[in-house]
Amino acid sequence: MKINVLLISRLERTLGALRRMIDNEEIVVLGESSGGTDALERIENLSPDIIIMSYGAGEDDVLSLTERITFSRPRSHVILLCEYLDVDLLQSALSVGAHNVIGYPKSSKEFCDYIKTVFHNESARIESLSGKQSLSWISKVITVFGAKGGLGKTTLAVNLAVKLAESRKKVALVDLNLQFGDANVFMDIDPVDTISELSQELSSPNIDLIRSYMTVHSSGVHVLCAPKSPEFAELVSPEKVQSILGQLRTYYDYVIIDTPPTFSDVTITALEISTMILFVTGLDISILKNSKQSLNILKSLQQIDKVKILVNRAVNIGAITLDDVQRLIDCPIWAKIPSDYRVAVTALNLGIPFVIGAPKAELSQAVTMVASLLLEGTQDITTLSPKQKKKLGLQGKGSRAQLSGKAQ
């Protein structure tokens, strides 16, 4: 989704500087104005998502314009850009309803990330005021884990994060596959900073510091990317990860964590801090053997109660059925995701999550249902309606659902 921006400043050099700073394909500069009546006409005609105005001492006309926009066009969000920030200036801005006030950014990335954050946060606030959204103050930390590589954990983590963000939730995606993480590839983002740079900060990280190291995806998901090279993985300690995740859960509604298929100290830290573990498995005897062993380890770590089993690429093309999976791992299956190689690989190669690029695909519909269950707080398959069970491939009654092994 494109974010449409209007620039307003008396000074042509300031307008030029702002144009050069907005270097991001997700942000479109619709036009610019020197203010006054011309600005009002442009706002009326262009209906921008974001209005960026330069604001300095004595520029009362800027405050007057801000007040008119705040009260008459609540879906056009104002950012006041100040060369110098002081208490009097901030108080004046707040008095007219402006609460997105910043100094001149140090970099294009910082500026563009701020614009995206304001857009998504303000859009969520307007949506909540409409009464269509229910507020939740309890952050959910969901770790996507599996006992073997190639299970589709990253695909699931990325698309699930995007789908949750579509519901106007604040969503963070943390790539803890520290040696070979590639969540950024799935989302076609090129991070300036990663978790390895953040981990080298000497001070204890606060939420503002952490967010400055994250990259904002067009969906609104804030991504903390894996190190750019495997050797930087050792810079990320379990203590740093615990501190980072603890801070993220104070700000975001959902923190989605992608992990490697190993029980490293960092992975165990993520599992322990999680409120839910989406354990991904498949219809393969080797995967099921590793899954069984991994579930035993999770039981010894006293994390088994958090586990929700998700069978990925659940298509009956071999000797193993979904009934066999449940019997072999001795754990109820929470959901299953169908196999669609073409949709998944096309999405990866384009860098567009399939819930965006192919929303009507069966694969996208399955992930959408999983996201819906998370949003609804569904804890057990026995609480699902027959329609939900059918969409997730779960059929039957009782605490242990009878699972359909038919190809999707």
The count of domains is 2
| Proportion of helical residues | 40-55%
CATH class of the largest domain: Alpha Beta
Strand order of the largest sheet: 8-9-7-10-6-11-12-13
Low-confidence stretches: 132-136, 394-408
Mean pLDDT rating: 85
How many strands in all?
A: 15
* CATH-assigned homologous superfamily of the largest domain: P-loop containing nucleotide triphosphate hydrolases
Using the alpha-carbon principal axes, give the shape. elongated
Q: N- to C-terminal separation?
A: 31 Å
Rg of Cα set:
23 Å
- State the secondary-structure class: alpha/beta
Q: Which CATH architecture of the largest domain would you pick?
A: 3-Layer(aba) Sandwich
Write out key terms for the chains shown.
408 residues, alpha/beta, Rossmann fold, 8-stranded mixed sheet, 5-stranded parallel sheet, 17 helices
Topology:
Blueprint: E1 3-8, H1 12-21, E2 27-33, H2 36-46, E3 50-54, H3 60-72, E4 77-82, H4 87-95, E5 101-103, H5 108-129, E6 140-146, H6 153-166, E7 171-175, H7 183-186, H8 195-199, H9 207-212, E8 215-216, E9 222-224, H10 238-251, E10 254-258, H11 265-273, E11 276-281, H12 285-300, E12 307-311, H13 322-329, E13 333-336, H14 341-350, H15 354-357, H16 362-376, H17 386-392, E14 394-395, E15 402-403
Parallel strand pairs: 1-2, 1-3, 3-4, 4-5, 6-10, 6-11, 7-9, 7-10, 11-12, 12-13
Antiparallel strand pairs: 8-9, 14-15
